[in-house]
Specification:
This protein is of the alpha/beta class. Helix content is about 45%, strand content about 15%.
């Protein structure tokens, strides 16, 4: 059984409510139909009902048993406006501005999760990561004690000798362009926690660089060394090490040669990239040219399970990512 199929088998008939704030996108409607039909979760579609039904009808998609919430006519509207105003009035927003913002489906959907009217949140197929986070972070909020919101993509490799039987996390692939030392250490710890929640095996986190254990001297290398030390302080029970080149991190023979007696070298199942350029390029490179399967980005550090979809995603991608997010809800 494929890994994603095992996830789907775990979540069937659990009645987890999942919010889709971009319900006027055909891919979301296609995915929602399947999620409902296969009893993977309960989709909540946010948007204009007339437009949504029109798109569904034109494409022979059955959403007759799926709830559609129109922010402008919802009985929850006034409460959500008031709650958002209370959340953000210290930023100087007016009640009128709060109303305008809450009528945006991204924000209304996030408020459904924050107010426990739904369990999880999946968006991003029609919006940038910045827009998704602008709604999710102030409303759903980071989990307690978390300063840094980041993301991981889950990769299913053809080579099962790498990672955890071919499963790997790449992080951060979608949120922080140039993480500082503190943020990089947070990303490593958050990715490790997310791995252990979803994959349920010990995390082995490699902090990537163009140097392995002092083979090169450069300020960029020093940054990774410092971030590694900080991450180890924050999560002493977690296997985290670096700085490490990619081959030393994932190939056992090279790991043994370049970083002897290191518990992560050659065994890593999580790769922490030094910046968003390298992380995002690597994840799309391996997905598109390496013919691997990629799920996500899955947001990490949030108080409730959320995912930021790639705008290039397919309906099947949305179904699979939704299954992962729903599985997180069961763990929570």
């Amino acid at each position: 059984m494929a890994w994603i199929d095992s996830i789907k088998s775990q979540i069937k008939n659990k009645n987890i409510k999942i919010v889709f704030p971009e319900a006027e996108d055909l891919r979301i409607l296609t995915a929602s139909e399947t999620i409902k039909k296969e009893k993977l979760g309960i989709p909540l579609l946010i948007g204009n009902p007339e437009k949504i039904h029109s798109i569904a009808k034109e494409n022979n998609i059955d959403i007759s048993e799926i709830e559609i919430i129109n922010p402008s006519s919802s009985p929850l509207k006034e409460k959500f406006i008031e709650n958002y105003y209370e959340l953000r009035k210290h930023k100087g927003i007016s009640p009128q501005t709060a109303e305008k913002i809450i009528l945006d489906t991204l924000f209304f959907g996030a408020m459904l999760v924050a107010e426990k009217k739904a369990d999880c949140y999946v968006a991003g197929c029609a919006n940038s990561t910045a827009n998704v986070l602008r709604a999710a972070i102030p409303i759903i909020k980071p989990e307690k004690g978390t300063k840094t919101i980041s993301s991981s993509t889950i990769h299913i490799l053809n080579n099962t000798s790498i990672g955890e039987n071919g499963i790997m996390f790449f992080s951060d692939t979608g949120v922080i362009p140039e993480p500082d030392t503190e943020q990089l250490s947070d990303i490593a710890v958050s990715a490790g926690k997310k791995w252990e929640k979803i994959i349920k095996t010990p995390a082995k986190v490699a902090m990537l660089s163009f140097s392995t254990k002092g083979s090169a001297q450069h300020p960029l290398v020093n940054k990774i060394v410092k971030a590694t030390a900080l991450a180890k302080q924050k999560a002493p029970e977690m296997l985290i090490d670096g700085e490490m080149q990619l081959d030393a991190a994932v190939i056992p023979e090279i790991g043994k040669y370049k970083a002897k007696q290191n518990p992560v070298a050659g065994q890593a199942n999580i790769l922490i990239f030094p910046d968003l350029n390298s992380g995002n390029i690597a994840y799309k490179l391996i997905e598109r040219l390496g013919n691997t399967i990629a799920y996500g980005p899955i947001l990490q550090g949030m108080s409730k399970p959320c995912s930021d979809l790639s705008r290039g995603c397919s309906a099947q991608d949305i179904i699979d990512v939704s299954a992962i997010v729903i599985a997180e809800c069961l763990e929570n």
